[in-house]
Amino acid sequence: MALRAALQDAGLVVIAEADNGRDAVDLALHFRPDVVLMDFVIPGVDGITATRSIAERAPEVAILLLTSSADEDLGLLGLKAGAIGHLVKGVSMEELIDAVRSVAAGEPVLMPAVARRVIDRLRALPDGGLGVRPVRSDLTTREWEVLDLLCADMSVDQIADHLVLSRETVRTHVKRILRKLGVHSQREAVEIANGMRATFSPGSLGTAP
């Protein structure tokens, strides 16, 4: 395969290839590679579902989603599912290899239109610290996303729709959040999160002498 050969010629080790979404998930969970190149259109389990499954069960694996069009909605859908990057098929091999190296280093790779949509969504967030998180936390990125939305007074059903997750998956995240925070209710979790944000908000930071 040309892609595999190009990656190997660039000094990147290709651990495995999958013919369908289910195999992609199984192989990613087994080998735990630095990067997974995920096709949006893939037989069996679709690329978004496969991305979500890998991100939830192996969050250390960086996923670069490849789509056949520059539709920013697809890119946003991939980011919500857990991808760290999004490229359109047809980019040069050099761009693709650079993107793989970037996501392996923890750097996001976004098409300009997707980056603009992300910025627009951030600007639309309400004031009051929503999204501010401690540098060190036992919560995963996905758990913080769920907690952010609980703080925004969203229900489990609304969170599931917003993050494109199943209701059961969101309930599982909520249970883990409560356990990690040592509380027994969503209200208590929200209070703790708001307390953390008050501690780490820009207005509470002092200047060095």
Order of helices and strands: HHEHEHEHHHHHH
Tally of individual helices: 10
Mean pLDDT: 83
Reported for the largest beta sheet, the result is: 3 strands, parallel
- How many independent structural domains? 2
Low-confidence stretches: 199-209
User: Rounded to an integer, what's the Rg over CA atoms?
Assistant: 19 Å
Kindly report how far apart the N and C termini lie.
59 Å
User: Could you name the CATH class of the largest domain?
Assistant: Alpha Beta
Q: Quaternary arrangement of the chains shown?
A: single chain
CATH topology of the largest domain: Rossmann fold
What class, by secondary structure content? mainly alpha
What does this structure look like?
The structure is a single chain. This protein folds into two domains: 2-121, Rossmann fold (3-Layer(aba) Sandwich); 126-204, Arc Repressor Mutant, subunit A (Orthogonal Bundle). It starts with a helix and ends in a 9-residue tail after the last helix. It has helices spanning 2-9, 21-31, 47-57, 72-81, 93-104, 112-123, 141-151, 156-163, 167-181, 186-200, and strands at 35-39, 62-67, 85-88. With 209 residues, the chain is mainly α. It has ten helices and three strands, in the order ααβαβαβαααααα. α3 (47-57) runs parallel beside α4 (72-81) and α7 (141-151) crosses α9 (167-181). It has a three-stranded parallel β-sheet with strand order 1-2-3, sandwiched between helices.
